[in-house]
Amino acid sequence: MKELSYFKPKEIENRSFEIITQELGRINPNLCDNAVLKRVIHTTADFDYADNLIFSDNAIESGIKALKGKAVILSDTNMTKAGINKTALNKLRCNAECFMSDADVASRAEAEGCTRAKASMDKAVSIKSPLIITIGNAPTALIRVFELIKEGRLAPCLVVGVPVGFVNVVESKELFLNENPGVPYIIARGRKGGSTVSAAIINALMYEALKI
Amino acid sequence: MKELSYFKPKEIENRSFEIITQELGRINPNLCDNAVLKRVIHTTADFDYADNLIFSDNAIESGIKALKGKAVILSDTNMTKAGINKTALNKLRCNAECFMSDADVASRAEAEGCTRAKASMDKAVSIKSPLIITIGNAPTALIRVFELIKEGRLAPCLVVGVPVGFVNVVESKELFLNENPGVPYIIARGRKGGSTVSAAIINALMYEALKI
C-alpha cells in the first residue's frame, strides 16, 4: 500500500500519458500526437473521445494564438474556471472568466425566462480581448454563442463546445458541425462532455502554447 | 433554433431525468430508484455507471444522516468544491472544504515527497464534525484515507471514492471493495470518475437530505 501512495505527481502523469498513447495507438495511430485529445482522455478515462472529439481546421492553432495574445477564456461554469491551471494561465497573462453568478446575468435570465448560461453568453459581447469560449455544461449557452456569431456580434478565436446531457445537447453541437459557424471550434459530438472536459481542453492548449 | 434556446432550467432537468429513468430501466429496472446513480448519469451521460457505481450497506443513509448533522464535506479538488450546490449546502448548514491549496499541505507534500492530495487527507484528522470525504481525482488521497481509517485515526460517515485515471486508480478503489474498510462508501469501480462525478454524488445526497 505504501508503494501505491508515495508516487510523485509528475511520474503519475507521465505514466498515464504513456498508457493513453499506447491504447490510443490501437484505436487510431494518427491520433497519438493530439495533445488535446490525450488530455481529455486523461481527465475522463473515456476513449469514446477518440471518435467524438471533432476539431475544425486550425482550431488548435487559433486557440494557441489567442492564448499567446492575452486571451479571455469565458466558461459557462465556475467548475471549469476552478479547473483551469492558474500557473499556466498567469504565465500566459490570460484571464479566466465565468459570469454565471453575476447579478446582472441573473436578472436578465429572470426577465427573459431563459437560462443564466444563455444570459452569461450575451454578456460576452462586451469583451474586447481575444476570446476563447468554452461550454462544458449548458447547451443553451452553446446555442446562444452560435446565434451571436451568426448575428456578427461575437467573433471568438475558438469555441470549445462540450456540454453534457440529454436535452438539446446533441442538437447544440450539431449546429456547429452541420452549419459552419465561420469560427474555429472543438466539439465533443454526442451527449458526453462536461466541466472537466472543458477545463482539460483549455489546459492542454495552454501547455502547448507555453512550449512554443 | 429559438425553441432550443428558450428552455427553462427546471424543465430541462425534469426531461433529462425522464430520459435517464427510461434508459436505465432497459439496463436494470431495479436501479431506477437510485437518485445518486441517476444524478451521476445526468452529469456524465455515461450509463457505464449503472454497472460501476458500488454502494456499501447504508452508504446513502449514512451520508444523508451526516448531511443532516452539519457535516464537513472534504474533497480533493477545488473543482468538486466549486460544483457542490451552495444553496443546498447552506440550507443544510454543512461546509465544503478542500485543503489542496493550503500552504501547510504544500510544505508537507514537499517534505514527504508525496502528492498534495495525500497530504490534504492527513489534515482531515483534525476535523471534529461529522465527515464526508469525496475523492474525484487523486488515488493517492483515496489510498491515504483508507490507511487513516485502518489506523483508527479517521472515521468518516461516508467515503465517496471516484478518482479517475490510469495509475493506481483501479487499485485504490479495489482497496475499499476488497478489504472492507469498516466505513460506508460509494465507489466508482474501474478507471472512470472525476470531480464532476464527485460533486454530483454529494449534490444528490444533499437533495435527498432536504426531502426528509
- Global geometry of chain A: globular
Oligomer: homodimer
- By helix and strand content of chain A, what is the structural category? alpha/beta
Strand percentage of chain A: 5-15%
Greatest chain-chain contact: A-B, 51 and 51 residues
Radius of gyration of chain A: 17 Å
Number of DSSP-assigned strands of chain A = 6
User: What about the largest sheet of chain A?
Assistant: 6 strands, mixed
* Tally of individual helices of chain A: 12
- Uncertain regions spanning at least 5 consecutive residues of chain A: none
**Approximate helicity band of chain A:** 40-55%
| Average pLDDT level of chain A | 94
Widest sheet of chain A: strand order? 1-6-5-4-2-3
Order of helices and strands of chain A: HHHHEHEHHEHHEHEHEH
Report the span from N to C terminus of chain A: 40 Å
Please give a structural write-up.
The structure is a homodimer of 212-residue chains. The first copy, chain A, has 212 residues and is of the alpha/beta class. Helix content of chain A is 54%, strand content 11%. Chain A is built from 12 helices and 6 strands. The first copy, chain A, has helices at 2-5, 9-27, 35-44, 49-52, 59-67, 78-83, 86-91, 103-112, 116-122, 139-150, 169-178, 195-211; strands at 53-55, 72-75, 95-98, 131-135, 158-161, 185-188. Chain A has a 6-stranded mixed beta sheet, with helices on both faces. In chain A, helix 5 (59-67) packs across helix 12. Chain A starts with a helix and ends with a helix. The model of chain A has no long low-confidence stretch (mean pLDDT 94). At the A-B interface, helix 2, helix 3, helix 6, helix 10 and helix 11 of A face helix 2, helix 3, helix 6, helix 10 and helix 11 of B.
